[in-house]
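ok trying again, last paste got cut off:
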Amino acid sequence: MISVSCAALAVALANPASTGPFRLTQDCPSPDGRPALVNTQIFRAPVTVEAAGRTVAGLAVKGGGNLVWKGGTIRAPLGSGIAGGARGAGLYAVLITGGARGIAFDNVTFTRARKAIVMGGASGLSVRNSRCVGEVEDCLIVTKASDIDFSNNVAGPFQKNFSSCTLPDGRVEEKVGRKQCQEKAGAWKDGWHSDVVQMYNAVHNVTLANNRFDTIGHGITQFGPGEPLRNVTITGNTIRAGRNGLRLNVCENCRIEGNRLESAVPEWRAVIMPGTALACGNIVPSGGLGREKC
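nice, full thing came through this time. structure:
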């Protein structure tokens, strides 16, 4: 095990000949709102980073891979953006793009990020035995990606961030729509539209298993039209959610089985909307689809 500073680890992550394993010895702050660490090389063999007890303000994997990250906390360079203003990748704890492949996280805490993990145009992501909590809107956003395992994780509880209306007299009202706020001559601010896991546009070969979600937002969803999802297995999860506990649209060769849904908001129903996926053997107290025997 090689003990490294943030600067030394940054150099190692840019060298395809690095072998590790590395033990991170200090927290890594963000340089001017950019990720603290960037991996641009695919290592010849898996390289492990042990980060227990350390906090890293942003990790970007841009065309890199064969990286195994164990322990510690990863947050976004600019935090969650819950106060408004900041947008974009500075609010992502982990960004995986550019054909990156083979990235694994084990026993990691993701927090203080609008998006904990964003993956696009990449393959081979494993997130296991980890936590996504606190000031987080979405835990995993995936598009045009494949070979994903998100299992044995805990997501939530999360910081609530409702829409709000600041009235001319300075009072702030929450859960107010834009039109209603404008009618009161107020300044409206949108809230978060949370999804623990959201997939859209050509996401293939996914396992979401044995996770525990606790959110007043959505649990697992498919967003937008785009290309279909393929080969998605959702099994053994406990999903405590508000609207859309589990919703897919067009998902080919997909199976939703052995999950339990619970409503996090008394007046809402947490249900399964399977789209074209097979849904059976699930426990859904709110009723609806997916409860039939397999």
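cool. The first strand starts at residue 2 and ends at 4. The chain has a mean pLDDT of 93.
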